[in-house]
Amino acid sequence: MKTSTKIEEPTRQPSIIRFRDDQYLLTMEDLREQTGHKAGLPLVWCPAILQFISYQDGKLRLRNTCKQESYLLSLTMKPDGLQVTCDCSDNSKPVCYHIYGALRTLIGTFGESYFKKLLPEGAMELAFKHRFCFDKRESSAGLDVSVREELQAVFWLDNRIVVTDLSAMLNLPAESSKPKIFTQSKKTGSGSEDGICYLWIVPYRNRFQPFMVPCAGKLNKAQTEIKQFYGFLSALQQPYDGLLTEAQQELNKTCFAHWQLAETLPGRLIKAGLVQCQTHTWIEVLNHWRDLIDQLSRQAFVYAYFLHRVDQLKKDKPHKQRATRIIVSTDVPVVAFSLTDKGVYYQFRTEIWINGELMQEYETDTSFFVSHKNTLYLLGSLRDAAILQWMDQLDGVITIFKEHFAAFEQTILAPIRQHYPITTYKTSKPHETLYDLPGSI
Ligand SMILES: [Zn+2]
């Protein structure tokens, strides 16, 4: 077996492997085009065994063993591509067989986007600089690094943030028109064993937009709870339709108009950082909710209900155990943001204020609403709905290493600051949830 026993610069000229696009993807096909065919390498490939040696000054060094031969491999990101060196003496080909085998192993094991981690100020460099924030895993394919889950979406390292079209979200209408106010406030249920209720239908996995359907059910003795639901749309049928007040009959018309629209729309206003559908469609949805919210806030019985399929509405009865009693509020949440300095990184979070009070542990996974302790609040504007849903899809927090802060400030913080207040905090415990794992490099 031939071995190189000391770390030294290789004898052959470095090879440059170019990436497919600015996301630094390198596919097996790209690799074959740049190395296999042009270099005339053998079609039968022997898996390379890669052993991590060191990472320093942007250079990843690995011991590359293939077909009982062992060489030193080094990988460095350069402006024109990935610079790869091998200390073999084969200068007859642009890319030697050892490099080809090693890159195949890296792509096959860690994926086509692995090399992006080798960028200056990328995940590999930060993993050695801020060891408490990353996990490092050595294997027979070398070394992989990943951000600890506690940090969630990390700016510049997480593509979910990079591809975002923030300006499209921030340019959505921000006006906060007042909800339609009804004059009647008669409660249902008094004097009868049955009562009218409203179900906030939330489709399973957000397949389409939520909507409200009227329903009837049997009340408990104290008339404080629906203890058994009749059919989904039973409130519209005899003998229960007589329980409806005039205001509820009016409310039901708006519910149905909204249902018809909601069923045709994607469940998420924002997907992969992009606004889905036309703006006027979402304005129509929001206006429907504005017309509904006041009357819904006056209803005695409202429930959130998770629905798997729409056809269940026509043939099934609501299951009591899948219904959660909720209160609909006419208070309008105020959206703001916070930026907390945690030492080596910042964390950017959403803040929701109701009547001057900062809410904790709220949900924003359905478009247009914030729910907090079983109370449902309608957001004030389409822009608020979009920006909250975008943050919700990033688990509500963006982590920014200080090395990336200037880029974050330019691309995200400054545009958001033009429309929303951002409060800054400093924590005295930068690593309160982070700890070093046994065996970490
Ligand atoms: Zn070689």
Question: Can you tell me about this structure?
Answer:
The protein is an alpha+beta fold. The chain folds into three domains: 15-147, no CATH class; 159-174 and 333-426, no CATH class; 194-326, no CATH class. 24% of the residues lie in helices and 29% in strands. The chain has a seven-stranded mixed sheet. Strands 8, 16, 17, 18, 21 and 22 form a six-stranded mixed sheet that branches. Helix 6 (246-262) runs antiparallel to helix 7. The chain is elongated, with a radius of gyration of 29 Å. Mean pLDDT is 86; it is low at 1-6, 185-189 and 430-441. The structure holds zinc ion. The site of zinc ion (ZN) has 7 residues, from helix 2.
Summary tags:
3 domains, alpha+beta, 10 helices, binds zinc ion, seven-stranded mixed beta sheet, elongated, 29% strand, disordered N terminus
Bound molecules: zinc ion
For the record, the count of structural domains works out to 3
Please report which band the strand proportion falls in: under 5%, 5-15%, 15-25%, 25-35%, 35-45% or over 45%. 25-35%
Question: What class do helices, strands and sheet pairing give?
Answer: alpha+beta
DSSP summary: helix tally: 10
> Main β-sheet: number of strands, strand sense, barrel status?
7 strands, mixed
Low-confidence stretches are 1-6, 185-189, 430-441
Tell me the number of strands.
22
Gyration radius (Cα, Å) is 29 Å
Mean residue pLDDT = 86
Amount of helix: 10-25%
- The shape, in one word, is elongated
Q: What gap, in angstroms, lies between the N and C termini?
A: 29 Å
